[in-house]
Amino acid sequence: MYINQIHNKKFNLILYLPIPLVFLGLIVLNYITTADVNVEEMIQMMINELGTNLTFAIMVGQLAICCVILLFWVKFIHGQSIRSLTTSRKKVDWKRIFFSFTIWGVFTMVTTLIFYFLSPESFVVNFDPVKFFPFLIIALLLIPLQTSFEEYFFRGYLMQGIGVVTKSRLFPLIITSVTFGLMHIANPEVGKLGMIIMVYYIGTGFFLGIITLMDEGLELALGFHAANNLIGALLVTADWTAFQTHSILKDVSEPSAGFDVLFPVLVIFPILLFIFGRKYKWTNWKEKLTGKVYEYSPEIENINSIGNDNE
């Protein structure tokens, strides 16, 4: 099992705690310090002083650096392989990553085009080659590291660690999904749309946690998250979002939150679960999502590796 990957290493709770305590502490500190601040205006001030691309690079680059630090900590402090933090398979399945990236990237592009043609007055063409292509390079370099950090931290490091401590698969699913959502609470989208947007953030956390547990690895979550942030940042920006970019389109409509916030969680994500489940032949959902985490043994690893290589 994926969570059991940490069992065949020398798991040390003292060495495990600094990373989550520091990062989650920074989330709380950031929320407290920005509680009385207009985050949208703060981002705009940074853009006025530093420019859009540099502001974007600073904001995303922080988590990209965190990704490097986390992987270093896992590899050299814990002595755990990056492969075992990524998957229960004998090697990382890049086909899974690319399939997940492609299916969500295509969905994002198609829905964006549909919204553009249905409501052209809500968008302006923002494409400027001189500004777009430098941004494209920055995005390609930093966004995959940013999204990989969030997956490695929440669905990897926390999922495995909490699972080992609690001997449960359900507890780490709930805890990592809720904390993932709360990480976004200081985003300007929350101030603009209200707390209902947290349903989307936490719901996305549950979706990513479910596909990680069912697929016994991070590959699908890594691909989905990278497509969501990268394709989204390249296609559309708005003055009230966390990502201010030199994208192709700019949304100039007045934002509002309603069923469109709930639609992905209630409709799209279940459809994706069905697609992934059929393609990778997922079975025994209840046990994989709510069952116990047993002590590691080579026999368990061999049994659970059977079927994990389904294409």
UniProtKB/TrEMBL annotation:
InterPro entries: Rce1/LyrA-like_dom. GO terms for biological process: CAAX-box protein maturation. The keyword Transferase does not apply. The chain crosses the membrane at residues 12-33, 53-76, 97-118, 130-149, 170-187, 193-213, 220-238, 258-276. Residues 133-231 form the CAAX prenyl protease 2/Lysostaphin resistance protein A-like domain. GO terms for molecular function: endopeptidase activity. It comes from the Bacteria. Keywords: Membrane, Transmembrane, Transmembrane helix. This is CAAX prenyl protease 2/Lysostaphin resistance protein A-like domain-containing protein.
